[in-house]
Amino acid sequence: GQNIDQPTEMTATEGAIVQINCTYQTSGFNGLFWYQQHAGEAPTFLSYNVLDGLEEKGRFSSFLSRSKGYSYLLLKELQMKDSASYLCAGSGGFKTIFGAGTRLFVKA
Amino acid sequence: DTAVSQTPKYLVTQMGNDKSIKCEQNLGHDTMYWYKQDSKKFLKIMFSYNNKELIINETVPNRFSPKSPDKAHLNLHINSLELGDSAVYFCASSHVAGLGTYEQYFGPGTRLTVT
Hints:
heterodimer; A: 108 residues; mainly beta; 0% helix; B: 115 residues; seven-stranded mixed sheet; 55% strand
């Protein structure tokens, strides 16, 4: 089967670092994506991993371990505008499966 | 210079009606998708099209009929609307998904409310 799990909500403080975890049980995924979705808006692409290891893009980094079915998104120097939902998604061929998303609240 | 556009943005209609949502992308992508995001914010794939051909149909009721007149457009027609169809529908596009792993670009969404 295909299943993606991530925490429902997280709260962090402005300026801090937060790690959002994602575990998946699936076959046929050849990439793991992270998207950001602000309330009432469309998801936007943040990062993806095809190979194991860490991918860094500015304040955002994503990590993948295929053998463990595990990924995380790391957000550094949190800003208030980072308050949003973060969606973990596994992609294989023409099909992408999204997790339910983690709502991140950034407080001052 | 909108990348992926959808119309309408809001759609309020009564049960039993038939409605359509249109989607266009100007990114030159070959693959397009329809997703449904319900009240719990769970984003679920409905259809994938590649170069106008249906590739994925995720057990969606046949009241939903996608149509792709060309690879830049993917429309969604819904017959006999039901209360449970109320959701936000997102169109998305990407490079040819079958040849690799590519990020998707989403349209702004169509909020459908069935009363």
